[in-house]
Amino acid sequence: MKSENLDQIIDRALSTPPEREMPDTFTERFMQRLEKRIALRDILFDFGLKVVVTVGVLMVLGMVFLFVNWGKEIQDNELVQYLLENIVPIAMFLTGIVFTFIIDQVLLRYFLRRRNLGR
Predict the structure, then answer these.
(1) Can you tell me whether residue 23 is helix, strand or coil?
(2) Cα 98-100-102 angle, rounded to 5 deg
(3) Which of 10, 19, 40, 109 is the least buried, fewest Cβ under 10 Å from its Cβ?
(4) Which contacts (CB < 8 Å, 24+ apart) does range 112-117 have?
(5) Hey, what's the torsion of the CAs at 86, 89, 93, 94, to 10 degrees?
(6) SS3 of 3, please?
(7) At what angle do helices 87-102 and 78-85 cross, to 10 degrees?
């Protein structure tokens, strides 16, 4: 589309009255919805960043563990044997921590911020 045609379309659209009137609260409701979306995006970004940092630290610790035990049989290590023997309680504990972290860092922050924006 040429810029001349675009300018004419914009001029015509701005010079004619709207076909339907917008409610008085339209802008306020639109801004509240936009603020909620931005808040959710920020909260999810913060959560993702924390997860990436945590996984990165665990990977570095795993690499250090492997480097220290390089050339040895991993199965002979006491820590590995303990972890393998207690894998179910450890997995349940870690699952509880993950769900608590999600609820604390995402859901509570989102609903508290949403409630504060609604006032």
Answers:
(1) coil
(2) 70
(3) 19
(4) 113/36, 113/39, 113/43, 114/36, 114/39, 117/32, 117/35, 117/36, 117/39
(5) 50
(6) helix
(7) 80
**pLDDT value at position 2?**
57
Residue 109 has which token pair? 């922050």
In whole angstroms, give the CA distance from residue 74 to residue 59.
Answer: 17
Question: What is the token pair recorded at 10?
Answer: 């914009």
| pLDDT values of the chain reduced to their tens digit, one per residue, 119 residues | 556 687 888 888 778 777 777 788 888 888 888 888 888 888 889 888 988 999 999 999 988 887 777 777 766 778 788 888 898 998 999 999 988 988 888 888 878 876 776 55
